Amino acid sequence: MSSPQADPYARAAAKFALSCKLASIEALIDWDAQTNMPKGGAWARGEQRGALAEVTSDLTGTPEIGALLDEAQGYADKLDEAERANLAEMRRLYAHRAAVPKELVVERARVSQQLQADWLEAKAKADFSLFAPGFKKLMAIHKEVAAAKGAALGLAPYDAMMDEQDPGLTCAIIDPIFEDLAADLPGLLAAVRERQAGWPAVIEFSGDFSVAKQKVLSERLAHIVGHSPETSRIDVAPHPFSMPHSPGDVRFTTRYSEDKFRYGVMATLHEAGHSMYELNLPRTHAFSPVGFARGASAHESQSLMLEMMAGRSKEFLRFLAPVLHEHLGGDAACWSATNVLNFVRRLDDDYIRVNADELSYPLHVILRYRLEKALLAGDLSVDDIPGAWNEMFGKLFGRVPPDHAKGCLQDIHWAAALFGYFPNYALGESLAAQLFERACADDPAILPALGRGDFKPYFAWVKPRIHDQASLKSFDEIVIGATGTKLSADALKRHLKRRYLDEALD
User: Fold this and answer.
1) CB-count burial class (<10 Å; 0-12, 13-18, 19+) for 260
2) Which of 83, 164, 271, 278 is catalytic?
3) N or C: which end of the chain has fewer CB within 10 A?
4) Which fold has domain 171-502?
């Protein structure tokens, strides 16, 4: 290949690099829409996102690009390992983008942006009727998209939707894991409730729980984890999120409740985990398909490793207790390590997924997964979502949400067109447990270091095995390379039983 212009791989890679840069711009305007944009800007932001979707489709979804990628494949033996992985990712992205008419992609972006504004109002008023009309439009688009992708990729429609977010994961892989958890967790929850009934009452917390105090605490927690003002910032959003932007610039959001300070603490740890993944992705592959994180489940494993596995470990909570006292004040007795542990480990009776304890969390996800599959198959109508949600929630949790804001309107994902995305949360928790178990076995210094608020040994294990891999390998290859086995629910079940039935409170 005599020159870059004559090199089909280089020409294709340049177009996909440009599309990756546009994706980072879209992430930035999405961040702005959820943190700073006035409500009246929703229609214009929809047009902007539609324009970006149109340009991306023209760049990487046309028959000409398909022919160029086919030509590049003929030279694959002349590429190095990273370039071959990048070519495979380009071909996967092309298959998705070429499958769906550009007009449909643009319309999905426009409808989704307006629906996010509708969702904010609907959630605030706990009124599903404000959300339903827009979601019906979006579901009609999803069905067309899923059918087109499924036909092009040779996958079932829901599998095709998941492949966009989590390449390589299908219902055939997910269903046995979810069935295992759904069968095991209710009995475990009952056993833990029985055990915790004998625990002493949590000493009521006192102090200054103002948002101003909690913001300073969140900044401290982010710094403890490894973030710096030079590379990250924290804002507030109704539904906490972290978005990929660009190397050296990660933005994440949290939320605060003056009644429940724990929400801000856990949301900050969760999103800080996502952002550390983004921050640690290899700069050499920035703005190329192979430089992105390896799918949504891998991403969620990094947030949940930090929030749940490390952040709710006895070692870290012992470190955290005096930090909470330092920032929030109040009676020292309530901030003892034992009382903080008693508080954090308690099973909750909440209705919100992001507030859920470690045992209940996967059940929230399984509920959404089952509803999504029914919606896409046409077995459930949009108007019937509230009733179906409450019925399934009652079967899984033994209680029913008091209103739709705490039920079917609690998440932004459906409004944001993230359909086929929810499974990753339970898969991510399973993978987080599998990774953390292996990390602590490989390096016994990790837990003692967390007891000092030192995350360096933790990230020294995680970074080369997960972050540095980006999308250079498949999901299975990364998981097996890091833990020795494929993803399953086994490590999560061991973790939950050990932490909630075996560990002493003191």
Assistant:
1) middle
2) 271
3) C
4) Neurolysin; domain 3 (1.10.1370)
